[in-house]
Design a protein that fits this description.
Blueprint: H1 6-39, H2 59-66, H3 68-99, H4 106-118, H5 121-131, H6 139-146, H7 163-188, H8 192-200, H9 205-216, H10 218-233, H11 237-242, H12 254-264, H13 268-299
InterPro entries: MetI-like, MetI-like_sf
Domain ABC transmembrane type-1: 74-289
Organism: Breznakiella homolactica
Length: 300
């Protein structure tokens, strides 16, 4: 029997260590995705759930495109995602720059910021739903009335014009610590000697920020924006608990439509089709991220 070399033993050990992770990915991520894709091309509902499910082709996709609420939900999803993402990034970047400076209670303040992100989303949604309560018992209405900014309680979650605003505010609050943490970590990796040389050459702080900090942080910024888009685009708990997609579908998003079709209407094929539309969007965003990060690696 041929004796294994050291390199072969190392390679086998590597396979043994990666095998559990590979099994997990195949069993709990790849298989459900593939099964969901296949189900979207079949007629799967209560009538066909326990028998042969006829092949439906693209009929489930045509059906969801004919739904009047689908276009509104897609627009709401994009609005919710892009507005949240913009303010999460701006506020998170500002806080990252603040915490990159040395001052008293820096570490404690940063830790308190992270608490917002670590709290389970269901708990966050429940607390904010109480804060946005439409009567005077809601903390936000109570404070605004005490400050004489409003004369009567605002129906935050019952008004089509204000419900989406309330959701975006909560999602910004939730996502800022995540942006701050990653951007602050990126700032700590920047070479200080380059900034010192630029300062000696007469560069102002603003010039250093625009022409040095941002270009050097570009890979981190792209990753933060991409992850933020993915997390926000697939949000479900926050919207479902706070508004349920209402009032009048003003906060209906793709995730809530997929849930309703699957668990309320028992149209599993159509629910899978909506989920796959979301998957396609996220895959495109991921590919764009890989393209830009690949360019940055080549340039570096």
């Amino acid at each position: 029997m041929k004796k294994l070399t050291y390199e072969q033993k190392e390679k086998r050990a590597g396979y043994c260590f990666t095998l559990p992770a590979l099994i997990f990915l195949l069993g709990f991520i790849l298989f459900p995705i593939l099964y969901n894709v296949l189900m979207s091309f079949r007629e799967v509902n209560l009538m066909t759930l326990n028998r042969v499910q006829p092949f439906a082709g693209l009929e489930n996709y045509r059906a969801i495109l004919r739904m009047p609420v689908f276009g509104k939900a897609f627009a709401n999803t994009l609005l919710f995602t892009f507005v949240s993402l913009f303010f999460q990034f701006i506020i998170g970047f500002a806080l990252a720059l603040l915490f990159s400076r040395k001052f008293r209670l820096n570490n404690m303040s940063r830790g308190l910021m992270l608490v917002c992100w670590l709290i389970p989303l269901m708990a966050v949604a429940s607390v904010w739903k109480w804060l946005f309560a439409s009567d005077s018992t809601g903390i936000i209405n109570f404070l605004l009335m005490k400050l004489r900014l409003i004369q009567e309680p605002v129906k935050w979650l019952l008004s089509p014009g204000k419900a989406m605003l309330a959701l975006i505010i909560v999602n910004i609050w939730r996502g800022v610590p995540f942006n701050m943490l990653l951007l602050a970590t990126g700032l700590t990796t920047l070479p200080r000697d380059v900034f010192e040389a630029a300062s000696i050459d007469g560069a102002t702080k603003w010039q250093s920020f625009v022409y040095m900090t941002i270009p050097l942080l570009r890979p981190t910024i792209i990753s933060v924006v991409t992850l933020g888009f993915i997390y926000t685009f697939k949000t479900f708990d926050l919207v479902f608990i706070m508004t349920g997609g209402g009032p009048l579908y003003s906060t209906e998003i793709l995730a809530t439509i997929s849930y309703r079709l699957t668990f309320n209407d028992f149209e599993f094929g159509m629910g899978s089709a909506v989920a796959n539309v979301m998957l396609v969007v996220l895959v495109i965003v991921g590919l764009v991220n890989l393209k830009f990060t690949g360019k940055d690696e080549v340039m570096s």
